[in-house]
Amino acid sequence: MEERESNVLGTAPIGRLMLKLAVPAVAAQFINMLYNIVDRMYIGHIPEVGDLALTGVGVTFPIITLVSAFAAFAGQGGAPLAAIQLGAGKKDQAERILGNSLALLLMTAAVLTVGFSAFKEPILRAFGASDATIGYASSYIGIYLLGTVFVQLALGLNTFISAQGKAMTAMLSVLIGAVLNIVLDPIFIFVFQWGVRGAALATILSQAVSACWVLAFLCCPHSILRIRRAYVRPDPRVMGKIAGLGVAPFIMQSTESLVTVVLNTGMQTYGNDLYVGSITIMQSIMQMIVMPTQGITQGVQPIMSYNYGAKNYRRVRQTFKRLLAVTMTVTCSAFVMVALIPGVLARIFTPEQELIQLVSRVMPLFFGGIWAFGAQMACQSTFMALGQARTSLFLALLRKVILLVPLALILPRVTGSVMGIYAAEPIADILASATTLTLFLSQRKKLLPTEKDAPKG
Q1: Ramachandran quadrant class, 193 (left: phi over 0; alpha: psi -120 to 50; beta: rest)
Q2: In whole angstroms, what is the distance from residue 453 CA to residue 457 CA?
Q3: Which listed residue, 141, 142, 235, 348, has the most CB atoms within 10 A of its CB?
């Protein structure tokens, strides 16, 4: 039964299979996004102090992103490897990878909780908190960090459910927590009047429920991959392989923290709290665009990983072509949306007219390169799916560390204006996407070989 279920990845019609796996994965990413987005929506509408509270919570975003990045380090590093082993018919090896990923998640959760909790205020100051916003930032992140282990397990282990082709189950694990978060947020924030503390408490309780759901599934007979006590014992060789592939998604997510710090501090230097608030809103909208697209790529990754392990290269090649068409459609549509209705999007997060006017003015510039981003996401996820660790690492560094951060530091100095910071984003997006696509095309015979070029044996 288990073998037949996993073989679906290698035999079902590609279009139908992509739809089956990608739709729940997109829904899961969208729902997961609601954890932070809903918090910000409610916080921004707290009477009298909503704008400062929203800015304060925005300053905590780098820490939250780092917590998620470590979950991706173990989860997205291990899941493609496990899927490749399933495709090769080596279930024991796949479960060994799962067990070592779980051990890695537990270890990092402990370190992150203690480390960030001990130094939260100086870290928040360094990340752009002002005297007016530090109280809100500290209150929110102090409670959020108590649930770090739940975030690690919910996000990190859910990728192993998707790797089996069980996208609907993976979606449900996120849906359960998100619905609970949406229900608890207004109760804790407004009814109990706990403010930002209530928003953080609602989030960690919801993640705890999701974590329990994921663990229960991965221990039950319905899961093709199961958590087995013998495999949870750390194996340096297995952990090394997980880390080798996981470093790329880790850098992709963790550097979002670096980007946020650079943008926030730049906005404080060349602007004020209002400009920091604009970045908080636009990064939230960026999440609304990028995370569903990531859902598409993550939903499709198991198809490519499984068939790569089974040496069905033609199927890998066909899947990539369809993936590229879908991601480009999504990002081009997003570009049109942010250009036409920036004010409508800003009002989702704040009723403050001055902040809405600023966001409406700068949003078309900030998102000016999002249309090209679909190519990078499709190619990057394919490198990941095929276990190309070194290339994935370079591309993870390219957009944010090599391009965006230096541009965000240099352009405002050159122009003498805060607008240089907003312009850094589209320039980095276009350059990174063009480079990624060029690199991918140069390696296409190796990555997506035809029958003539495919390795023998």
Answers
A1: left
A2: 12
A3: 141
> Stretch 384-398: mean pLDDT, rounded?
81
Residue type, 394: F
Does an H or E element contain 285, and which?
A: helix 273-309
Stretch 43-70: mean pLDDT, rounded?
Answer: 82
Half-sphere exposure of 203 (CA within 13 A, CB side): 30
What does the buried/exposed string (b/e) look like for 84-100 if buried means 16 or more CB atoms within 10 Å of the residue's CB? bbbbeeebebbbbbbbb
- The per-residue pLDDT of the chain, averaged, comes to 86
- Residue 140: pLDDT above 90? yes
Residue 457: is it exposed, middle or buried by C-beta count within 10 angstroms (0-12/13-18/19+)? exposed
Q: Could you give the residue ranges of the DSSP H alpha helices within 310-372? A: 313-340, 342-347, 353-366
228 CB burial (10 A radius; 0-12, 13-18, 19+): middle
Rg (CA), the chain: 21
For residue 452, the model assigns a pLDDT of 57
Contact between 24 and 302 (Cβ < 8 Å): no
The model's pLDDT over 235-287, given as tens digits with 9 standing for 90+, comes to 999 999 999 888 878 877 787 777 888 888 888 888 788 888 888 888 888 88
* Rounded distance between C-alpha atoms, residue 10 and residue 306, angstroms: 7
Q: What's the rounded Cα separation, in Å, for the pair 393 and 246?
A: 9
Q: How far, in whole angstroms, is CA 30 from its chain's centroid?
A: 11
Residue indicated by tokens 């279930």: 91
221: CB partners within 8 A, 6+ apart: none
pLDDT digits (tens, 9 = 90+) for 96-128: 999 999 999 999 999 999 999 999 999 998 887
Rounded distance between C-alpha atoms, residue 125 and residue 53, angstroms: 15
Rounded CA-CA distance 424/416 in Å is 14
- Name which of 62, 67, 81 is nearest 246 in CA terms: 81
DSSP-derived secondary structure letter, 136: H
Q: Kind and range of the H or E element at 228?
A: none
- Nearest CA to 239 out of 77, 39, 434, 359 is that of 77
* Three-class SS state of 129: coil
pLDDT at residue 457 greater than cutoff 50: no
Distance CA 421, CA 409 (A): 7
